[in-house]
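Thread: "does anyone have the structure for this chain?"

Original post by V.I.:
We have the sequence but no experimental structure in hand. Need at least a predicted one for the grant figures.
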Amino acid sequence: MKYIIEIATSDFATTKAAVAGGADRIELCANLAEGGTTPSYGTIKKCRAAFDVLIYPIIRPRGGDFLFTEEEFEIMLKDVQLCKDLGCDGVVIGMLQADGTIDIPRNAKLVEAAYPLGVTFHRAFDRCKDPFDALEQIIEMGCERILTSGQMPSVTDGLDLVAALNKKANDRITIMPGSGVRKENIKMLAAKTGCIEFHSSLRGKEKSKMEFIHPGFKGSEESYMNNAIDAEEVKALRAALK
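Reply from O.Q.:
Generated one for you, tokens below.
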């Protein structure tokens, strides 16, 4: 069985570590603490030039909900085009209507704008009203996969729905479990859901290399901590599936 490991990264350094750990695909983000927003042009360009791995930037102009204004949608269209221009392999999208249904017309326009790049529908799916209706709509609009935690904050709590979605998908689209995927549970997730692609952020922190700590901020831990991914943790994720 060939399993695919996707790692969500938050900058160049974490992407470098994820690639070193053997990630098959990168969901390239900024602001992972907010669930991920579109990374900068410079970040996407530098990562594309440096790494020979599948790169899928998230197309999300802000954190918060997945109900976007027309202006935000125009930004998303422009960012999709930039990802194409920079040679990315795909993009990650997701928009809802106010009533909790999938925003079919505008998501479809993003998929069309991205073509021939691949498209993942992200965890906006987990906030939709009817996951089985949404599954069919997302297949119809031409997405490759759905990232989902089974409409729960952690995938271990949404396990039954993920398994049911994967069964219903019947190889028409890939169901990719995410949110709380770790080396300790990934083998169980694979066995219970039948899924073969997995998403994890493996988010960690490392101490800043700053030598000067300003006295006014010595109690501010976030001022002197940076996002980090341990390449060995990425390797351990794959090893746990064997």
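V.I.: this helps a lot. The chain has one domain: 4-239.
O.Q.: and The chain has a mean pLDDT of 97.
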